[in-house]
Amino acid sequence: ALKAEGVDTVFMLTGGHVLPVIDGCVAEGIRVVDVRHEQAAAHAADAYARLTGRLGVAIVTAGPGVTDALTGVANAYFANSPMLLIGGRHQENENLRGGLQEMDHPKLFQSITTWSDTARDVGRFPEYIAMASRHAFGGRGGPVFLDFPWDVSAGQVEENAIIWPSSYRANRPAGVGDGTLDEIVTVLSEAQHPVIFGGTGLRWSRRDDVTGALEALATAMDAPVFLNSLARGTLPFGHPLLGNRARGVALSQADVVLALGVDWDFRTGYGKKVNLEATVVQVDADPSKIGWNRDTDIGVAADPGEVVAQLASRSADFGHTGGRAFTESVFEAEAQKQAMADEAAASDMSPVHPERFAREVAEFFGDDAIVAADGGDIVSTTAKWLRTSRPGGLLDPGPFGCLGVGAPFAIAAKSVEPDTRVGIVYGDGSFGFNGMEYDTLVRHDMPVVGVIGNDGTWNNIRQIHRMLFPERVVGSDLGVRRYEKVVEGLDGYGEFVDDPADLRPALERAQDAGVPALVNVHIADQMRMSSAYGF
Which of 335, 352, 378, 407 is the most exposed place for a label (fewest CB within 10 A)? Predict the structure, then answer.
């Protein structure tokens, strides 16, 4: 059933309760990638879905195996990733008797999945996989959970008694009718300060060529485009209409905003950073997102990519030039902000300036790599420099703010695209969560280059702690530890850097090593440097 769904790789940590399922994957030719912690398996399944658009699958054993995976599932939930966590479960004949690792798992997942259940009939397993998939791909999408009791999954059934569902979920993107399309076209064509803003929901469009349609629409409207979260890469780095640093300027001055799969959450000031007088056209496959925190003037429950394609087909209706002066002003602000960042990135200070770190790392990875970002401040800084030119090119933690995604995301990327260059950008705190997954990278021959921005502290929280309780700052200092030696101990390659002139050569050596590598870079205080340069 998983193979019929298009799954070619699963991520797992072994356990007795799931051995029949693992054996079935091997028998069907599905690749099995084993990790060192169940959280990593869930993160990897999440990233698999983000990269391929197919169902990501993690398999974990019962009890603590399932609970270890909770965080990864929660992160996928807030990223709308269509992933399936398969859990082992205690034997049915031991239910409520205190069997090994007995737990009613589905109840744990009700608030962080779109569906969760237990399969109690081995002959109906394909039906359960179909149900799980249907829910995983409903609306924007999201994670689902299914567990199998040990004695059920180890059972037998006559072949001809199995029902094999097919064509069991929607396979066409939903657009809008002519009347609604006309209304949107009229609003956009009359705009003087139009802005196109794409978010996570745009990434989960069921339409194939979203990039081409978005480029055609933006060109026809001559409007600045800003992309958030998983939508990054829908337009390639360097596109003349793609903004990066001046989103706040554009949204505060916009008179019309076309919001495509955007979450008006903390990252957008709950929608309050948009001009309060602006007309908002909001398109989302999830109706509950429309009007959430920010009133919408035209709210459309539809596939954002499909609506973009419909609007692009009306390019002739956007022949106005009234917005050109606004677009030029937005990119003038963009250039000014970039110049400030360039000035900071030119620093030769040691420890390395965070902006210098970010620029060097971005130039090294270029625009053809997949980069997993794992951290807080260092991710925010580096993401503005990374040359993301394809959907899934930047795999970031997402709105849940989950640390520990770096190596698991890289494992998924190398599983999906073994010949693509894959990198990880870490904060020193985040490396501690799943750094042991370098062992997984080594065992599965997955050469990636990780790089740590190491300031020796939980810096983001330390600043807040210092303001609130200046006399008692505790739990914030980590010290500048030699994490690269952990990777060396796992048969990878490691280097420590504290001089910016040494950073790029170290990254090149790490790449040339041909094994999983980590470059540990001592950087200056992130918050102090940002304040000094007005960021």
Answer: 335
